[in-house]
Amino acid sequence: MSSATPTRRRSRGSSRRDAPISQLDWGQPRHRHPLIKVVSDDETAAIHQTSLKILEEIGIVFGDDEALRIFKAGGALVDADSGRVRIGREIVSAAIDSAPARFHLQARNPGRAVEIGGDAIAYTTVLGPPNCSDIVRGRRPGSLADFEDFVRLGETFNIIHMIAGSPVEPNDIPVPIRHLRSAQSMMELSGKVPYVFAHSRQRVWDVLEMLAIVHGLKGREALADAPRIYSILNTNSPLQYDGPMAGGVIELARHNQLAVISPFSLAGATMPLPLAGAVAMSNAEALAGVTLSQLVRPGAPVATAAKTINVDMKTGAPAFGSPEANKALQIGAQLARSLGLPFRAANFNSSNAPDAQALYESQASLWAAVTAGTNLVMHAAGWLEGGLCASFEKFVLDVEILQIMSAYLTPVPVNAETLSIGEIAEVGPGGHFFGTERTIAGYEKAFYAPLISSTQNYGAWQEAGGKDATQRAHDIYQRALKEYRQPGLAEDRQAALSAFVERRIAEGGAPVD
Amino acid sequence: MSSATPTRRRSRGSSRRDAPISQLDWGQPRHRHPLIKVVSDDETAAIHQTSLKILEEIGIVFGDDEALRIFKAGGALVDADSGRVRIGREIVSAAIDSAPARFHLQARNPGRAVEIGGDAIAYTTVLGPPNCSDIVRGRRPGSLADFEDFVRLGETFNIIHMIAGSPVEPNDIPVPIRHLRSAQSMMELSGKVPYVFAHSRQRVWDVLEMLAIVHGLKGREALADAPRIYSILNTNSPLQYDGPMAGGVIELARHNQLAVISPFSLAGATMPLPLAGAVAMSNAEALAGVTLSQLVRPGAPVATAAKTINVDMKTGAPAFGSPEANKALQIGAQLARSLGLPFRAANFNSSNAPDAQALYESQASLWAAVTAGTNLVMHAAGWLEGGLCASFEKFVLDVEILQIMSAYLTPVPVNAETLSIGEIAEVGPGGHFFGTERTIAGYEKAFYAPLISSTQNYGAWQEAGGKDATQRAHDIYQRALKEYRQPGLAEDRQAALSAFVERRIAEGGAPVD
User: What residues contact residue A2 under an 8 Å CB cut-off, 6+ apart?
Assistant: First the structure.
């Protein structure tokens, strides 16, 4: 039990390329503890009633003709000129009732299916930053090569359940064909559940065709037997869905794929300043999307995110990771639970570096999400700069805090055996438990084995190079890329996928909106 | 609302020495949400019954003759040769009943009294490291000058409710007089509740005499009208109290001062490997101290910390900040709540630098403590290296996460006014809330104003020097020391305090045990 010997062994181990990174096995963590309530059940109900009133009396604008037709057919009051839709509460309530409380997403690797809802938690990679960084090469606009490295990290780490894409924007690929090249990379490099951007109907259709191919199905219509892909649908607050987002909700529902309805709302900017009003409005926006989805296909999988983020009144920027954002998130989770809808959150922070701020904000976001009963945590690994940069070191630091959270959520067995009174009597006052039968048999697996966290003493740490956690994360992301193994894809499906992509590229891809 | 202008104004502000640091007002955060339960109520009861059985059947060793006499007089079975005390469950239960569930600690600054117990949370500075560090001067053994700087920071930041001392060990002061010089510094430099080490009866008496002087009381016996100081009493696990710790429990109870009974226990080393058994034994040790306290003086203020920390089986070091430690902490908190005793936790981490690891571990420790209903968080600011180093930057980073937690715990009002339906209708789809009457009136105080966290965009941040959070924390600790104002102490009390210290130093101080 001296610190020197195991430390040396460990440091030799980490320099050997054949020693795999020690990580948790694949699996979804589960909520086990009573969940936080920031407001009372009555207050939750009052917020929801306000949301219903907003939809019924004020209404919400949809910038898509098909959406307006669907709402009209569903009984809503539609003003075709302004696109404003007033949705009666009975229509919204029916949609809430028909939306499933939990469901599975199938993956092309059958061992990587994911449950959404109930007590399940799922984590995704970061999604959407235009830039990426690592501490050696610095900050740069993302490329397809960077995109692919993030997908490889998402595939390698078991605590990441779904790929969100683009984990970084592949700026070197022309926009009309970017969805094709990036979806191809995502589906080839990972067997986990992939992501589709709802930038236009054509692009959604293209990616769904590709998804059908890698699942061995005949065309995108055949996907409707099970959810296999997901997309974030943002509102254009206050109270607006633009054309692509409305179209995305419709197409995902039509194909029975997961629409994560996520108002991106700023209290004091696109939402009222008081959090209660901001969450009420955010919930209204989310429920409008849920309603559209369920009008297209009752039972289509949806998740909501009636959350809001405050603006930093000093910089005018969204304060991702702020205490108010965490409270608003938890009220949103209470609302979703009360409605029986899966709830999404995010691992947010505003920091410009993978530093102390990035991690205290991320850790607070994660604890807020988990203690509130969140089912899907977007941007769970790699997000920096309020979403403008994907960091390779942050990705690994986040993997560590996600794994630690899983260890925290593992139940503590309390029984005659674990209460240990016989062993305590045997050891007695002043003894020690290092040598007891149970300690020797159990110690290797008794506690979480850290990925990055060090308990080395200062001298040993200095001798080993004195690397801080971010520098150690850099080393681990490099090792993870070396250890990455591409999951196999049947030869005929691979050929069909390539043929489809090359044909669509030859056709010019999808026009830019 | 452009980001450039306020950013520039802010960066000018932070370089002006006359601009005071923006921080929260003095006040204690309060628990408001339902608290986490890691195990069921039945399991909590089973753990407690095991603790009672340990005390009754196995017993616990006290290395202090007076403690043995007190236990014998109180009805326990005492083996004078071995010092082993077997305490019947009715004796323990009576002590639990007589210990107060909540009480106040008076401070020499009347505005800095602190409530312990109930829904109150109190934070202390770091306590006990032999070394300290800052990123400019590096790591070094602590001196009285460093000690005093940490006390000044503790006095300056309102979120720190009590001074824990030594925040760093003043190694340049000879041990026999160290308690005198350091207590003098603590009591002169801060008007907040101070700390006394229970290293020997003589040293406790000396510090209590000094406490009486600064409160204008005639001798330490006069302190018994109200709690004004506190001490951590560690057990020597398994199942032992050494002489100074037992003596400390007795002297604190005798003077009606707060004894924080804190078994320092390592699962798989000084405790059984299973957390249930480790917490049961830790709780037994804590309750032995509570019982001794209450036998001396029924109603004497105590707090407990039936927690345990696992050993990192790779390094043999305590894994401060581990997920198992956080779970064990929360079970301990459940036990304390079920017994009606105030509960202490700590802001733990194992990192060797004020880096990402330090903060993700600290943030997890803090969330675990707060969601479990902890009343007193020791080492809340400044702890590094598993307690072997006090870091000036970590102190300020911790102040930030403590302030953020307070903002998180502030209630969200839900009522017709905050639900904002009128304002939402007025702004309508596609508008914005920047210019509404309420946003303009309320935005300055609506959200937490960060101490360190930055939401600057990357370009503005780079232009301002690209300092990471730890570097910004360095600047703020330097500013805080410049802004520090020593609280006044009446001339006669100051003179009496100095005279007492000089006399005791002339007498040789207190002999080393």
Answer: B316
